Each structure stands twice: as C-alpha cells, then as structure tokens.
Amino acid sequence: MFKAPEMRAADYTCLLCGSRLELKLENLVVGDNTGSCPMCAEPFCIIITTEEMYQLIKIERQSGTFVEQ
After folding, report:
1. Of the candidates 14, 28, 17, the residue with the CA atom closest to the CA atom of residue 59
2. How far apart are CA 16 and CA 37, in angstroms?
3. What is the DSSP string of 40-59?
4. For residue 5, pLDDT beyond 80
5. Of 4, 20, 24, 61, which has the fewest Cβ atoms less than 10 A away?
C-alpha cells in the first residue's frame, strides 16, 4: 500500500503559487501561524495542533535537521 512521505515544516507551500513558505520548526507554534508567501506575498495562516507539532518534531529529529535548545 502506498504511504505518502511525512511532511516537514519546510515542506509547506503556498496554495496560490506553489512556492515553499520557508517555514522553520523553531518559528512554529501550536495554534495559528501567519505570514506571507515570499514569492507572491499572499498571506497565509497555518493552524497546527499539539499532535501535529509532535509529529513535526519527530520527523525533524529523524531527518537530523532539528536542534534542541
């Protein structure tokens, strides 16, 4: 059975133009994360739940890109 790869914080893309939003796990919070697309300046709002944050941290640790502070 096909399983989609797990998504990292850097994988979020703009719904309008498709470019990456350049998000970093260190800057994300549980709840509303707002900003604007670096390519087209379209505003975005990403709502992250506690469970999703745990998953993002787990994936970042597995990929070796997460540095705990």
Report:
1. 28
2. 9
3. T--EEEEEE-HHHHHHHHHH
4. no
5. 4
**Tokens linked to 57:** 């941290």
Query: What is the DSSP secondary structure assignment for residue 13, as one 8-state letter?
Result: B
Supply the pTM of this predicted model: 0.75
How would you label 27-64 residue by residue, b for 16+ Cβ within 10 Å and e otherwise? ebeeeebeeebeeeeeebeeebeeeebeebeebbeeee
End-to-end Cα spacing for the chain: 38
HSE of 43, CA atoms in CB hemisphere, 13 A: 4
Please, how many CA atoms are within 13 Å of residue 69, restricted to the half-sphere of its CB?
3
